[in-house]
Specification:
Strand content: under 5%
Shape: elongated
Protein name: DUF1364 family protein
Distance between the termini: 96 Å
Strand order of the largest sheet: 1-2
Pfam families: YbcO
Helix content: 40-55%
Largest sheet: 2 strands, antiparallel
Region (Disordered): 1-22
Radius of gyration: 30 Å
CATH architecture of the largest domain: 2-Layer Sandwich
Number of strands: 2
Number of helices: 5
Structural class: mainly alpha
Amino acid sequence: MNRSTPMKRTGFATPSRPRRERAEAITAEFQEAWLRSMSTVPRGSYGPAKLTAQPKTVARRNPQLLAMAAGRPCLLRVPGVCNGDPETTVACHSNLSIHEKGGHRKADDCYSVWGCARCHTWLDSSYSATGAQRAQRFMGAHLQQVLAWRRIAEDAAAPEADRKAAQWALDQLNATPVAQDAP
């Protein structure tokens, strides 16, 4: 369309000068208020200025507890996945947020289970299972893990470092041993 051709009327009138100036003023006021409120929000947060970032919890780590997994049986035992080879067993950490897992933070060591290399891979990056299936498998294995830690903590023949690590995990979980002579 060249400039000499008259434009069609659309039925929409351009706002009058006072209305347009008022709208621009309101927009400018809003932008200033928004910038003032955002200056008090921690970087990376888009919530109201009153919200503050929650402090991160200190990770509870126990290298001996993780080292104990070597040579142990797999507790995850995912059907069709588990290789059953104790030589590949490692401590597999929970991927559940209730266990303080989030972002680049690994769950605490007390929320780990013994798992073979294939089950560990399935737990961490399975596309063949839903998150609920992986959570259910982990929680069942973790119950067995707590029972195994109880046996180790009470076994006088177990190495002292293993007994201490197992007791540490039980203490972190508040999983007191079951009394042997309870009625």
